[in-house]
Each structure stands twice: as structure tokens, then as C-alpha cells.
Amino acid sequence: xxxxxxxxxxxxxxxxxxxxxxxxxxxxxxxxxxxxxxxxxxxxxxxxxxxxxxxxxxxxxxxxxxxxxxxxxxxxxxxxxxxxxxxxxxxxxxxxxxxxxxxxxxxxxxxxxxxxxxxxxxxxxxxxxxxxxxxxxxxxxxxxxxxxxxxxxxxxxxxxxxxxxxxxxxxxxxxxxxxxxxxxxxxxxxxxxxxxxxxxxxxxxxxxxxxxxxxxxxxxxxxxxxxxxxxxxxxxxxxxxxxxxxxxxxxxxxxxxxxxxxxxxxxxxxxxxxxxxxxxxxxxxxxxxxxxxxxxxxxxxxxxxxxxxxxxxxxxxxxxxxxxxxxxxxxxxxxxxxxxxxxxxxxxxxxxxxxxxxxxxxxxxxxxxxxxxxxxxxxxxxxxxxxxxxxxxxxxxxxxxxxxxxxxxxxxxxxxxxxxxxxxxxxxxx
Length: 430
Hints:
Blueprint: H1 6-15, H2 39-47, H3 67-78, H4 85-97, H5 99-104, H6 110-116, E1 119-120, E2 123-134, E3 141-150, E4 153-156, E5 161-172, E6 177-178, E7 183-193, E8 196-206, E9 214-225, E10 229-238, E11 258-267, E12 273-283, E13 307-317, E14 322-331, E15 339-348, E16 358-367, E17 385-397, E18 400-411, E19 417-429
Antiparallel strand pairs: 1-4, 2-3, 2-19, 3-5, 4-5, 5-6, 5-7, 7-8, 8-9, 9-10, 10-11, 11-12, 12-13, 13-14, 14-15, 15-16, 16-17, 17-18, 18-19
């Protein structure tokens, strides 16, 4: 098809009627005659796979087209890569109009987003409250804060690369205090390179089901493979506390960070099953930060301040409502407190884009002090704890997510009781 004729052809095809009754043997559709003013348009679109008609070989141009049918045509037009600028602009407008239908068809409109604006802004306003009760010397803890988060994404030409950031500003409601500055938690580029997807900078890393690591490193990742089997490599430096060094201790910034290396394999044979396996190593871990926490379970590592952690995990969906998630990890460098595992049964799930949706879960987590670095869970207190967890989430309105969670258990080292109540409300914008 000629570059400049796609949109005009679509227009013609949408309005074609059955006024003529002369038929040609090579017609793509039996009800579109060769002498019709729209014959060339319909023929070209059919040959290019933009339209496909009905199973009985007709086009039915006289019928009113549904929005779903129009979205199918728009989706196929979006897949064309040889459009002229004017045609691209019109297809983008059509994609914006039929965005909901395209989403239902599983068609992403990322290309439209990057064409319409080089910078896309998203983020959230979050209220979070939690209350921790501990019988150990660590004592109780209360968190009552509001977080304002911005997550800009800038498209770098037509290269497929993006520049990404995450900026956080937190306010303490209990003391009516503001943070002194905005924290740049992430700043990285992402894009294709030699058939792989690459990130570089202060980049996020999420391992398996989140038992081991959900944080960021200063380094990079490389992911390659297929939708069914993918391999991800990660390397960089990691600062557990995310703060500058305490100069009163004679430390510098590098002293409080560790070298991070990781590899993960993901196997997703179908929509119901996802399996993960991987290995993460940390060297040169600074432990001074935890010396003031005597009396409670705290992360510590081998004699050389190293960690070598192997893990396996996965998720299995029994049906559209019920799923099981589990993961196991072991630090082979630790002499004790070297294992972690989690098992969780999920029912339904809250989708911020779907008002009225909800979900709940129940499970058990045992995260020994040396077996996890930065687990993803908000319910459990952290590494060095074990116990039962329950939670529920609800979407009262589009892009508003409310969550409550509860943990009841103990410290893995001391055996002393500990519990946590967690509540969170997110207001998303994008």
C-alpha cells in the first residue's frame, strides 16, 4: 500500500455502501463491486490485513460499525510502520479516541503516548499509616506520613529509549513536619540494545516474587530472551540505608554501599504459571548501621561481609480468581538465620483502573535475618521476622487504591512477639 493512501483508504472503506450490483471475480468481498468508488480502498486494506470482513465473504459496508470493530481497524493501522506524517497523526487521534477498546483488545498505546508528548508525567499521592508492636528492646514504632511522588518518563527520539526518574517528597503528619528536600530515588535510561532490554543509572531491581529484593541499585540490568523464557542480569552498588555516610564514623559514601550482582531466570509457559530462579551476591556489606540495634533481629552476613543467596519462586493461577504464590531463598554464606520463605493464597485482585474491584490474601512468611536484603512486603516488619499475614484491597473509585494488612508473629532470633498493622491509600495519576 502507498504510504499516503492508508488513511484515505480507511475512510473510504468505512463509508462504502452496496449501491452497485456489478461483481468481479477477484473481489475480496462479494458485496463490494469492482466498479464501486471504494473498491480500490477496500481491496488494498484487505490485502494489507487491515480489514478482514465477515466469515461469509462479505464486507457489509451498509451496516453501522461498532466501536469494537473500529478499534480492530485502528489497531491494524497502528501496526503499519511506513505511514507518512499526516497519516500517523490521524491514526494517533483515532487511537486516542478508541483507547479503551484498544486496551480491551490487548493493544498497547505506548507508541501513541510517545508521539503525542515527549514527556509523560505520572505518580501518586499516598497516605500511609502503620503501627508496630514489639516485646524486644527494639520497641514500638508508628508511621503516619503522606508521600507525594512524581515519575516522569521522557522518550528519546524514535530510538525506543526512555529516560525515567522517581522523585519522592514526604510529610510527617504526626509532627506536622516536612522533609528538608526531595529525594531522587531513581534516575535511569531504558531501551533496546542488541536484542536485549537494558537499563542503566539508579535503576529498580525486583527479584522473583519480591522475597529477596525490591529496591534500586546504582548500576544496570540486561534482560533478554522471549516472553516464555527470559534471563535478567544485574550489577551495581547498593546502599541499604540510602543515606550519605556518617562522617563522624570516618566513613565515606562508598564505605556504606555493597557490590551487587544478580542473575534471574523466568519461565512463563502460559497465563496460569510463572516460575523464577536466581542468584544474588553482595560483597563489601557495611554493617555499622545495624550495631545500634542490639536486642533485635537484624541483617548480618558472613565473616567477609558477603552474601550469596539462591532463590526459587513462582505463581500459579487456579482460575481467574484464585492464585498461589510462593518463594524460597537461602544464603549459603551465613552460618545461621540463613533461610527465608513465603506462601500466600490470593483471591481476586484490586485493579486501580477498575472501580469496585477488590482482592484479599492470607499467608505465612519466615524471613530470617541473613536471607533477605530488601523484601517487598509491607505487611511483615522486615528481615528477621516470621508469622501469619492477611490483607485486603479495594478500589472505591478509578485510580484510588485502599489497602489494609496485618502481621502477627515474632522475631526469628529472639522469639519475642511482634505485630504490625498497616493501612495505605494511594491516589494515582498518569
